[in-house]
Amino acid sequence: MTWRSPLALVRDALQGQRARERELRSLVSNLPYEGQEKGKQPNRFFLSNAIKTTKYSLLLFLPMNLYEQFHRLANLYFVGLAILNFIPVVNAFQPEVALIPICVIMFLTALKDGWEDFRRYQSDRKVNNTPCFVYSRREKQYVERRWKDVRVGDFVRVVSNEIVPADLLLLYSSDPNGVCHLETANLDGETNLKQRIVVSGLGAANLGFEPESFNSAVVCERPNSNLNHFKCFVEKPDKDKVGASIESLLLRGCTVRNTNHAVGFVVYAGHETKAMLNNNGSRYKRSKLERKLNVDVFFCLILLFAMCLIGAFGHYLWLESLPGVPSFLVPDSNGHLDVPSLESFYMFFTMIILLQILIPISLYVSIELVKVGQIFFITNDIDLYDEETDSRVQCRALNITEDLGQIEYVFSDKTGTLTENKMVFRRCSVMGTEYPHKENAIRLDVIDEPESEEEVIFNQHQQLPRSRWSLEAEGISPPDTQRHGRRRKSKVAANAHSDAAFSSPLETEVIPDQKLLQQISRAESSGGRRDGNRSFDPHLDFFLALAICNTVVVSAENAHRQRECTSPQSSQMRNPLETFSSLVKKAGAFFQRDKRNRTLSEDPVIDSAKTEDEADANRLRTCSLHAPSQNGSAIVEAEELCYEAESPDEAALVYAARAYGFILLARTPDSVTVRLPSGEDLVFEVLDTLTFDSNRKRMSVLVRHPVTKDYVLYTKGADYSIMELLGTPYAENFSGIEKNVAADTQYHLDCYAKEGLRTLCITKKVVSESTYQSWLGERKRAQAAMECREELIMQTAVQLETNLTLLGATGIEDRLQEKVPDTIVALREAGIHVWVLTGDKPETAVNIGYACRLLEEEDLVINMSCKNKVTCTAILDCTLEEVRRYRDDPRNAGTTQNISLVIDGNTLDMAKSPDLQERFVELTKHCRSVLCCRVTPLQKSAVVKLVREKLKVMTLAVGDGANDVNMIQAADVGIGISGQEGMQAVMASDFAISRFKHLKKLVLVHGHWCYTRLANMIIYFFYKNVAYVNLLFWYQFFCGFTATTMIDYWLMIFFNLFFTSTPPIMFGIFDKDVSVEVLQGVPELYRTGQGKGEYNFLTFWIAILDAFYQSLVCFFIPYLAYQDSDVDLFTFGTPLNTAALFTILLHLGIEIKSWTLVHWIIMLGSVALYFIVTLAYTATCVTCNPPSNPYWILQNQMADPMFYLIVTLCTVVALLPRYTFHVLKNSVAPSPLLQGRQLDRMDPSTRDQWIKEWRGFRGGAPAKRYELSDPPSPTLETPVDFFPEFLPDSNFMGDDLSLNVITESRQRAVHT
Amino acid sequence: MKQSNRIKAMVKEEQEESSNRPDNTAFTQQRLPAWQPILSASIVIPMFVLIGAAFIGVGVALFITSRDIQLQELDYTGDDSEHPCFKCRTNTEKCTCSMTFSIPTLFKGPVFFYYGLTNYFQNQRKYGASKDDNQLYGDLNYFTSPSTDCDPYTRDSKNMPIVPCGALANSMFNDTFTLSHTVNGVQKIVPLDGKGIAWWTDYNIKYRNPSITPLINAFNGTKKPTNWPKPIYELDTTDVYNNGFINQDFLVWMRRAALPDFRKLYRRITHDDYAAGLPAGNYTLTIAYNYPVHSFNGKKKVVLSNVSWMGGKNDFLGIAYIVVGSMCVVMSIVMLIVYARFKFGEDD
Prior knowledge:
The structure holds 2 protein chains of 2 kinds. Chain A has 41 helices and 33 strands. Chain A is an alpha+beta fold. Chain A has a 9-stranded mixed beta sheet, with helices on both faces. In chain A, strand 21 (671-675) and strand 22 form a beta hairpin. In chain A, helix 3 packs antiparallel against helix 4 (95-128), helix 8 packs parallel to helix 32 (1062-1070) and helix 34 (1097-1122) runs antiparallel to helix 35. Chain B is of the alpha+beta class. Chain B has 2 domains: 43-69 and 309-347; 70-306, no CATH class. In chain B, 30% of the residues lie in helices and 18% in strands. Chain B has helices at 2-17, 41-68, 86-89, 125-129, 133-136, 141-144, 167-170, 200-206, 248-254, 315-341, and strands at residues 71-75, 95-103, 107-108, 111-117, 176-183, 186-189, 262-269, 277-278, 281-289, 300-306. In chain B, the strands form 3 sheets. Chain B has a 4-stranded antiparallel beta sheet with strand order 1-10-4-7. In chain B, helix 2 runs antiparallel to helix 10 (315-341). The two termini of chain B are 59 Å apart. Chains A and B meet through helix 34, helix 35, helix 36, helix 38 and helix 39 of A and helix 2, helix 4, helix 8, strand 7 and helix 10 of B.
């Protein structure tokens, strides 16, 4: 390190500051300056890649932590009092001593903060020392460096599955198309791959990338946190500028996938990276309990002031009553006595100091410690651990554990939260004909069995080739040995793929419907090979649309997410660098924008795709009716194809198409390759993609058919958004027969919806050349528009999507997660109102509602769906009237019928309007469950806010996707489910779980425990302090209100800090009022925490009153016993102190519900500690604490039988009322919790019996699980009525007939 | 061998696979074996009966003990003009007065002789703090510069340090008493024993004279407390072991009373004919009346009492025990009724 003048350092710092603040940054390569001193480095002003998330540094820890801590009002209060104690006229103790409690508290807090910071430091160090490859000029290659050594201007090489160390401008990719795939799960949680493109126009170096030859300057904007926006251009030496955007930026923290290696130029490093700018630490929420606690602290403050006023006034009266100046009145140092009024004014402050611990000083730190313990137990709960994803429950907000115990409203998302969000193709309707796919249904049904999923699937695999999915094969069970072997293997496979989206066999396998297969083969053969007419067969078109109309990305390698690409079948990968140069050449050609007229055979991409596909296995062959041998050269190892979709629906459709032989082989920005059942590959040129948006609710792909050269628009979307765009019925050559396609399809769609399937309509439109050209012009104008580009683009999309021809519809099942009905029933029984908010249509939602037992068959279900506000108001009023009447009707008093509400988005919007919201909220208050359909994310959060604010209740929102983030943040407790849709919900949440079923234990058990524990602990804490402080207060009446303490000050401090502090903390962490089994078995017990809960106005004041009573007993019994004796000050105080200790500890002993070893150790330890410390202190301290002098006091007392008699009497009398009260209450009116505890004492089998009886008595007998219509059970003789007890006013559930049709047809199939 | 290795590898793999799995221990899963008492009448009734019986027993014993203690109180404040000490009440000069009283039956020994004050707040905070423990411990450094705790009784008007300093020492009780027994018309002095009336630890550990002989030399350059008639080293010139800081009367005074109405031990009657107690008869108490009490509306008294294992006479504790014990018994009966009326779930 060379010495530099301070002036230069300052100049540098200023320059650096300016360089960082500038709007645009110009960065050049570091390579020419390699090895030179720091001052010569061009990019020296920008932050390095080392990160530091610690709050404190080693040296500055103390001042910074103190500063942090003084932000807390309570700490300021206590420090203020300690300082007050330094003022001679008002001090109550020796000044230094008064500092001890606050110092101990702050030390503990600092210790905790320090430990947390140390953990952050460790994780920083780990990240900073992660290796990566940086180009070095000296060694002419990429050398391994640490992340922290990466600087702006370096060239970093990243390989597949490696995490990007800094924000890199992508300059080179091993992918022939210059694409680098990126998984952003670490950043936004989306697991689908994103494509990043090499900065174009730097393509001079086609033969691989030479960092040394990079002599352009990269000019980029100032760092910002927007993950989807980046502006930059590369200025070549010849002043030629090439623009680049987010499309070329590899973000720090993302993982490179599917790309062998890539090279990037570091533009932002360390804290300036977008990932770090987005990383703002954990959130601080204040729990309901804490808010209430603060109110009570305020009450304590009032109490304190009242007591101090009494003290001051008493002192005044006492002074006034003295006729002269007695020898015990001590004047000040000048021998001067103040007037009584001034003395008593001083005394007021002295009293505050004396009685300060009425405000529990250690309460806040104790609460924090308790929460740490509670969180430890929550995260360590093995029941909340998910094998599959290897994840525990995460507590992201550290201070609202007790809120979980007070939930009254749960708002749940549907997709991905209640359901798996693993879409499975169930059935489809093509040209008005329904294909029920019953074999597929059987397969899914088998998976429904409680056995291990994978096992069953592998059994299926075993059977598939043999049986061709015939029903009879169901009876054949494979040998057991095979089962187990398979099972093990499958587990490993599942683990290996655990992070790969949508790859489980459940979703990828679809068993085709025989009838539809025949239909297709007929169409194919009748259509002929090359006559161009073939594509008009709607069945073929339907599947083509499924395969084409999406944004699914095909990834060719099965092993794409493994560390190294060692796949032996692709020989190109053997020597990447060599082959890459040639591939890049091709990519160069590929990227020339003008390739509209490129022909199929010339396309290098397809060539490569083909060569890749040469070597393959053949599982999917069986899926195609046409034997693969027909076209041996083009067999696809379809099993090796992996589809990456943004939404699981799309993938499900592509897999379905694949099952019918329409295999999506490749997708590039400009083309789609589809293999037909005949084995022929067709390359469609993609002219445009009209992406999905929530307004249009549909997406379209405009392609050019390679054979007919037609411009074809395939559109898929929600039925209501498609049906109104339909033009004339399908092609004229089918006239007459298929006239009613639309009507039939709509009919089927309704049936699907009632079955709980997600529906999509598939349409086609042939666009004429001229129409296309004119549209293209507008489209281009729209894309070039600077203002309201989004709207214009949408308008062009709407223009084209007219006169569509309906091909058919699909039904996709989103399977319910495990134990969802059970969880929802438990939540409902726990007195929680459950709302499900979904974007689905009402029919689907209602069906799912029944399936997950949100709605029960015996429920009263109210439907609200209205077009305008007037009807909405009318309906609302009517229903409200009805509901009220129903509730007030004495005949319904005993019944347990529940009311549920189904409401759609439009109506919800109207109901939320200011004039109606009161009535709406009133109505929902009566509803056990509410189902909101077709709601937007914004509506979700608005509903949560409405309920939360209007009803003043505790709300919990649970969701898994980005659309739930608003709702999660709006609710008191937000729970994110880490599922298929990534981490955004988890990031916004307070708790993250992996399955919906975990909610049951989290809320009913941990929530209840945390709340009860903390509530009881806080009440106890207040009690404890008031009881102890009041001893001092009562003594003031006997010492002229002069703030004398009859207990040595050290012992007083120890009393609060050591002797009685650990038991309540232990109580808050370990106490278990009712066991897990009972809490889960009898969810009603949860109700104790709802609303006001156990910590309320009454319990608080009862505790305070009890404290007053106990302190009176503990003071006046010794007072009366020692009256008129020669007892001295501390001898009098010792039995008081001891009696208070026993009273306070035994009081807790009454409150403790279960005594484990920990409880015994801590309780007995506290007593032992008291005697040991006090004895040691009084034995050693002769003059150590002047003027207080407790030498040999306790020893003397312990030799006196009076001491024991007094202490015993005090303790017994003090605790007798509370004890008796508990006993009488438990005997006369046992609380539900006590009954739960009594259940606990029984042995498990009797207990289960009891729980069952109890539940039976309440009429909530566990109903049979609601089944979807599909199970092909042979006993299904009669058509199932799906909505048996609907109100007459249900306006969309009228036609049960439709379902009968389906079930009948299915039965026929079953019986054949 | 190979196989075992493979198994080990598998086990290891298994562990790595589920690295995030929480430990399944009784502690982390909150399943520690626990005792879960439920407070209800059936357990409580026998307990209440037991406690009640025990308390009544103890109470009766205490009450009997307390009742057997004899007590003789003599108020000598002299507020009443009839009182022999009335003349001394306002007199600032040395004044003595005598009171006569009779003891009807034998006052069992050993008899404790107390003086008592009422409305005297020895527990006043500033008053109690106004002393210097180090000085009283015999540390000569604090003789010349006493602690500021003693203010304003640290130095006299000539800025000489006061030893012992502070209000507590300065206000030491200075009435003295002699008790005489009238035997056949002759006054016979009852010998009073002033030894061992203070705490052993005070006398031997907390308070020490400086190790300088003669004691007077240690107090060179210091002054006596302003209210004192004579300096501390002359408190008892007859006995070196009762002089200076370890003077028993001084020690007794320095141990602050807890309550404003208190008594302090003055002497014990353990000698000669009176070792077994004070025989019935007439007695005369002669008081050297010095200590002013009118400034705090106080009363002065002399208390003669004998003591039991539970200390002086106090009926309260015995009565309290009996009352609480009876309450427990009553409660147990209430519980029994409750128990009969509400058959609760646990008795199955």
